[in-house]
Amino acid sequence: MYHMVVEPQHESPKVVGLVSLGPPYSSEESCLTTATAIVKRAAYDLPLAAPAPDEPPGEAADGPLLLHHAEWFCKLRWLVVAAMLALALVAAVAAPWLWHHGIQLEAVWPLGIAGVLALANAGYLVMLRATRNSPNLAAAAHRGLWLQILVDLAVLTVVVHFLGSVHSVAPLMYLFHIVLVCIFFSSAESLAVTGIAMAMYVSCVTAESFGAFPARSMWHPAPPAAQGLASAAPWVLAAHVGSVAFISVTIWFLASRLTGALRQRDAELAATNRRLMAATDERARHMLQTTHQLKAPFAAIHANTQVLLGGFCGKIPDEALQVIGKIAARCDMLSRQIKAMLQLANLRSSAQDPPPATAIELGDILRGCLAALEPLAAKRGIRFAENISPATINGVHDHVVMMIDNVLSNAVAYSFDGQQVSVSCRAGPSGGAIVSVEDSGIGIPAAKLPKIFDDYYRTAEAVKHNTASTGLGLAIVCQVARAGKVGVRVESAPQQGTLFTLDFPACWGEARGPT
Amino acid sequence: MAYILIVDDDTDFAGAVSTLLKSRGYETAAETDADKAVDRIRERRPDAVILDVMFPENDTAGFDVARAIRRNFGGLPVVLLTAVNNTFPLGFSNKDRDGTWLPVAEFMEKPVDLNRLCEKIAKIVSN
Question: ipTM of the assembly?
């Protein structure tokens, strides 16, 4: 059995020999014996699964989030410091009144707690600043959070002691930390924190009950339990501590389940987002390639038609020149059509982040667009009457250029030969700027005005007057106007012309009330 | 006689530009491989370079070449041409992917009016 073999390295297939197929060759490399030469050919198996988007490492995803949690935790702690200072102030000012109402409160311990927490918080903030530059952000932020929680639990145990460890609701304050660590950490770590909190509470109660330090209470007179639990039956103490532990573990279970489910959903959303971003990048790249592949041949055809029209390839009959002129015009139009389609698709793509708005000078943009249109206008004897005052706005430069370019292009396209297009720009009454473009051309019938911003909509009069329009220019204007909250007003009368007024806000995308 | 180097993988386009420039009295040469552009300039320094942006296998080869020209040949003027339009971060005017301005004298979007291109070249060369 004989087969023709072609050498793959050549640009065009080239027969290198007639071979007889022998035993199977290795998949890596095959040697074909030919009458004249030995050709080595490389093998490649196409992977059938599409490559998955790169998964960012856990560090990249977790680090900033943990740091954010740690910063938020510090902010929350300032509130606790403020609450403790307020408590100290109340104790200092209204102690007799409180005593009269059965509450005994000293100013010293809340003040001490506030001081300790404030000092610790200042230390955490310094640590967080250093953490931000840490090469292992996630681990550093994680360690910082653990430190904050352990110190908080110790301070909270002191507060619980002063408020009354067994006969007040103070132990329930541990639940705040248990819920918070369920948000910050994994289930196992949050269970460990729950255990540590309970251990601290049990130590406090045990130390009080065995008289290591006197039990305290915020109530006056102190209930019997506050005198010390040594006198109470052991089962009373066990039942009390057991109840607190049961409530704490139950809260941990519920909170960790909920936060676990949320974390999983969050991870799924993040993965979906990464895939979406990868798809968007791929789409943008594909569109870029497509644009190039479609426009480059037209550019070459267009350039060569100019060579022919310029007479650089010898004299060409007038009829042929007319045909070449039509080819050139169609190439130009197709290129513009492709550009407009892609501009519109990109403006409408919600997956793509809008470019940043910057300070732009509308007068400069107008003059640039007018200069670009000048050769086309001059061919038809159309003049520009400019009244451009400086007007700076905050906007997306490229989008504003697209918008103004389309409005100006339309004014030229739908003017009659030899007419004038008036362009003005001035600062708006309440910031922003007003740009107006007025022609005396074919105009638009009133009934058709609401449709002119639709894709590919062109009035019969417009088609008759100018066959080379893409039909997408005003759709692009509409899209940019909606994104930037630019007011667009069109006033027109058939055979009298059209006035476009663009009311740019001072800040791009900033909605304004009626003026 | 001013010498213009055209760096573009599209030989049809480069040929048309070359024809028109020659008719205006310029000497021209074309290079289709962006990687060899700098070597071609080193062999004989042109008065201006007409440079495409996108090349096979590298979407931004023209940007790299523009930077290499600025690095190695100082004030050698470059006219950047591209068929990619301003709907992408890449290819909008003479800005690179990261938004930095490229060291080019002129930027033109394809299809270009060859007469305008010649006018720009004349202005650049006379400067």
Answer: 0.82
